[in-house]
Amino acid sequence: MASAVILTLMLCAAASWVVAAAAAQNYSAIFNFGDSITDTGNLCTNGRPSQITFTQPPYGETYFGTPTCRCSDGRVVVDFLSTQFGLPFLPPSKSSSADFKQGANMAITGATAMDAPFFRSLGLSDKIWNNGPISFQLQWFQQIATAVCGQSCKSYLANSLFVFGEFGGNDYNAMIFGGYTIEQARKYTPKIVNTISRGIDKLIGLGATDIVVPGVLPIGCFPIYLTIYQSSNSSDYDDLGCLKSFNDLSTYHNTLLQKRVDIIQSRHRKTARIMYADFYSAVYDMVRNPQTYGFSSVFETCCGSGGGKYNYQNSARCGMSGASACANPATHLSWDGIHLTEAAYKQITDGWLKGPYCRPPILHN
């Protein structure tokens, strides 16, 4: 695992792209795609369904003081990116009254890379509870772009930052929680990565020049997996206490995605800047060196019901009766066992903006 982090650092230092891209400090808009990691309200544009836990307190308590449909105690990565570039927080693309001139957020909780027919073919339709795959999000974006800049979007989009993902996490969740083994899920990784790659190509074709492509996270370090797939066999865990087989799946996905990003970049070297954002190494380093980031707990959820080693119970999750938040979320890596705290997202964003967890870093001269 350490070798993967070292490789990322070497690649960040060695990367040198000769491109004609927009200056990062002058982005006029941000367009974000993805799932619950960066959803800023798409699932709640028609109200706040009470049965969805993250529409309930204590979600949102740290920054907003109220639930905002973000799956965190406060802000997420795209919020910090917006602040960095002097832009307002991105409105959800499904909002009927928002002004999208400075960007929009297509991300929606539960989103997958693959379309519904893919999951039907695997007998997993019941594991996909929200239909917002890449293909749909690209359609939502095109509708917004047409409304904002009409048929003359090239210069507008060339001066915008695009964040495409992460995608893939919910695809694997559907398979794993649907009874597939890690090995069975792994067989579909090339197909998932191909779908992400086609989405990147689509954005470039529409006029995007600066695109951040995040990989998936080290799911084997997350309380939900550590609780549900707890093992009595010590060999199932790495030296930090993460489940190795789950992290191996994430690493395999990220390796294929990085290779594909490099291929796409080589095809568009003079017209686009494709940045691979390393969610995995950023989070794994927090697990390895928590004190460096101000964390006293990396495996125990901040918001939970007090149950078990990881403070995670699927039947009493954050936002449900019986669950409560810790006194200081900033000392925890995990907010609800599935998503991270605002403090963690801030650290990740810094690593994307300046390095070392983005190749090349978003900020450039």
Automatic annotation (TrEMBL):
GO function terms (MF aspect): hydrolase activity, acting on ester bonds
Keyword Hydrolase recorded: yes
Stretch forming the signal peptide: 1-23
Pfam family, one: Lipase_GDSL
Record keywords: Glycoprotein, Hydrolase, Signal
Keyword Glycoprotein among UniProt keywords: yes
Family stated for the protein in its record: Belongs to the 'GDSL' lipolytic enzyme family.
Name of the protein in question: Esterase
Organism whose genome encodes this protein: Sorghum bicolor (Sorghum)
